[in-house]
Design brief:
Blueprint lengths: L13 H7 L20 H7 L1 H26 L16 H72 L5 H33 L8 H35 L2 H37 L1 H8 L5 H9 L8 H28 L5 H28 L2 H51 L23
């Protein structure tokens, strides 16, 4: 029956499928499994292979920039009167770089917000599922306590009947019926206690929501900080273009090198997390089933996958309710027997029978509602699908957008550093003292590098 299980309402996104297809290779460049397993170091190596490639590209570009700047400083300074200073990068190209960087910032910002919304959705789904399980456990325990508490009342009823003037045969039969009712109630309470025990075996994943929230808070703030840092660089670059200041230029190049390092590092992290999430989202049910313990496997499978899964609480529910119904039948027969005797001394016993019967009918109603609502898979399956939708929807989209923003910023800032140097070359004048023409600001002197 479990083989027919299937999650309701979740569809694997095309983005998750594409990320799942990314190459998974270990340090020896050998292909490894792309089946999600965060406990396997070999798998983690493969999942972060794309992140390693991204960081390698970033390292190569960083090395190229350093070599280029060193070469310009040591070998390529202009000589007075050579006319080299009249060549260089057009300021329109510089402004274009700033605009493209702005687009990268927008991508990174929206990706950061999407990721936060998705992670909050995951946390909310976990809390909702945990609340449902705790509520069901509390109601089952309450039902068990009500059933167990009926036993002493029946014993009191036995004493009341024994003190009446009913015929001995009726008393004997009533005593037998009460004993059977008590045994049936004991069996019913055992069945509901088993339901409670099964619910207790469901892992309390809500304990991780605080850690998830703290992680997301750190991730969100650090990403916003990195994006604001890049925005600061763009503002300094704009001032550099307006003021034609070598001081602004030197500061901007230095800060941009740091920003490049941050963007390539962030991009590597987010593409690695994206591949990990994609691997999970392609087959979340398989991972959930393999990760849970045997003691709670049937309960978790039923609550999360739902579909055609058999209800693991069905047997205990049927046994508990059957014994409750038999108890009510015994008490109904006992009531009929006492009434037929037409003995005025049985008034107290009949009142007690009425109270017990009404109480058991209430317990039966609560048990039916519990089965159809709280321990039915529909509610928890909804929470499970909300979790998958948040993790594999907005969170995955957000990580991808953030990676795209980091990639755009990484490439554009690389070009930007070179363009800044070339632009400054365009502004230099070749007079004999190495200063600026009247179109520049004479207080900023050209040094050897620029």
């Amino acid at each position: 029956m479990a083989a027919a299980c299937g999650a309701i309402g979740y569809t694997v996104s095309s983005l998750a499928q594409e990320l799942h297809k990314f190459p998974h290779r270990n340090r020896n460049l050998k292909t490894v499994s792309n089946e999600f397993d965060p406990t396997d170091f070999t798998y983690l190596e493969g999942a972060f292979f794309s992140a390693g490639l991204f960081l390698l590209i970033g390292a190569i570009l960083m090395l190229f920039i350093m070599v280029y700047l060193c070469a310009r400083a040591c070998c390529c300074t202009s000589k007075p009167g050579s006319g080299e200073g009249k060549q260089g990068c057009n300021p329109i190209f510089m402004i274009g770089c700033i605009v493209v960087c702005g687009g990268g910032l927008v991508l990174g910002y929206y990706g950061n917000e999407f990721t936060r919304t998705g992670i909050m959705g995951v946390s909310d789904a976990i809390n909702s599922a945990n609340s449902t399980v705790l509520s069901a456990t509390s109601r089952v325990n309450e039902i068990t306590a009500n059933i167990t508490g009926t036993g002493p009342t029946l014993e009191m009823l036995r004493g009341q009947i024994m003190n009446t003037t009913l015929p001995p045969a009726v008393k004997t039969d009533a005593n037998r019926q009460i004993s059977e009712a008590i045994n049936q109630l004991d069996t019913a309470s055992d069945s509901t206690a088993l339901i409670s025990s099964s619910l207790d075996s469901v892992p309390n994943v809500a304990q991780y929501t605080d850690s998830i929230s703290k992680y997301d808070d750190i991730r969100w703030k650090s990403t916003i900080g990195a994006l604001c840092y890049v925005l600061l660089i763009l503002l300094i670059a704009f001032l550099c273009i307006i003021c034609r200041s070598v001081g602004f230029l030197q500061l901007n190049v230095f800060l941009t090198l740091i920003a490049l390092l941050v963007m390539w590092l962030y991009g590597g992290i987010f593409i690695g997390v994206g591949v990990l999430t994609g691997d999970f989202c392609v087959d979340p049910n398989g991972y959930v089933e393999s990760a849970i313990s045997n003691s709670s496997r049937e309960q978790i499978r039923y609550f999360t996958l739902c579909g055609n899964c058999s209800n693991p609480f069905q047997s205990d529910f049927d046994n508990g309710r059957a014994n409750l119904m038999m108890t009510q039948e015994e008490l109904a027969n006992l009531t009929a027997d006492i009434r037929s005797a037409e003995d005025n001394s049985t008034e107290d016993a009949l009142n007690t029978l009425g109270i017990v019967s009404a109480s058991l009918r209430g317990v039966d109603t609560v048990l039916i509602n519990l089965y159809s609502q709280d321990i039915n898979c529909t509610n928890l399956n909804t929470d499970y699908n909300d979790l998958l939708t948040s993790a594999c929807g907005k969170t995955l989209d957000g990580a991808t957008f953030t990676f795209a923003g980091c990639f755009v910023l990484g490439v554009t800032l690389t070009v930007f550093i070179i363009a800044m140097q070339l632009y400054w070359t365009r502004l230099r004048d070749d007079d004999s003292d190495g200063g600026f023409s009247s179109n520049s600001y004479p207080m900023f002197k050209r040094n050897k590098t620029y």
